[in-house]
Specification:
With about 230 residues, this protein is of the alpha+beta class. A hairpin with a 5-residue loop joins strand 1 and strand 2. The longest helix is centred in the N-terminal third of the chain and has 49 residues.
């Protein structure tokens, strides 16, 4: 089996290290970016929740005209509005039939809103079948067990995240390949090829071919080695 030149292991180590570093950094940046976008989305929806809350009667009694006003507001804001009573029943939903929806008191954003005054979550909607961001607030902050105003908006589903991670992994692989290739070319030009030339000349000298000389090529150390070998031959 042909023995690989010693720089090969070093190049491989650099390539693997580059791959790991780029993949780790890219993943962290990717996740941080998605988190920042999500929080920005939550902030925008929270403003909508506060606005919708001002349009809901304080006694939470909705007649047909008030329901229409809230539905119109939801369309203007391009936001889904859901009103959830203290028992978890849906009083109004701008995008779905309230009577067909299940109890919402166990939803993470509703639980958090009742506990701390504001809650948010991101998940796939079982009602609409799309990935959404939800923000919920009590209608009356002093009555967390009362009506909950929840707003939501669709969000790109999970596959784009997976695609981004694949892009990060692909970029890491290409970066590692590029770094390894450049390093290998540099090592080959300045170390591997010149050292092979010195080795071949040394082998000829060992067989008594004293007229052979090593070409002064490569790094300073390799050129110095070639010069010493030529002095020995002379």
């Amino acid at each position: 089996m042909t023995r690989r030149p010693f720089p090969f292991g070093m190049v491989l180590a650099v390539a693997v290290t580059t791959l790991v570093v780029v993949a780790a950094c890219g993943t962290v940046i990717h996740m941080a970016g998605r988190r920042a976008v999500y929080l920005q989305h939550v902030s925008g929806l929270d403003h909508h929740a506060r606005l919708v809350r001002e349009w809901v009667p304080k006694d939470a009694r909705l007649d047909a005209a008030e329901r229409q006003r809230i539905n119109d507001l939801a369309r203007v804001l391009s936001t889904r509005v859901t009103l959830i009573d203290g028992a978890g029943r849906i009083v109004l939903d701008s995008d779905a039939t309230a009577d067909l929806m299940d109890n919402h008191n166990h939803r993470p954003e509703v639980v958090a809103a009742r506990a701390s005054g504001m809650g948010h979550d991101s998940r796939r909607s079982g009602t609409l079948g799309e990935h959404s961001v939800y923000v919920a607030r009590p209608l009356d902050p002093g009555r967390p067990d009362g009506l909950i105003v929840r707003v939501s908006h669709w969000r790109e589903d999970a596959p784009p995240g997976a695609t981004s991670l694949l892009a990060v992994a692909g970029s890491a692989g290409l970066s590692a390949l590029a770094a390894g290739s450049v390093l290998w070319l540099l090592l080959r030009r300045h170390w591997v090829v010149p050292l092979r030339g010195v080795s071949e000349v040394a082998e000829h000298l060992a067989h008594g071919e004293w007229r052979r000389r090593a070409a002064p090529a490569g790094t300073e150390d390799v050129r110095a080695l070639a010069g010493r070998l030529n002095e020995i031959a002379a």
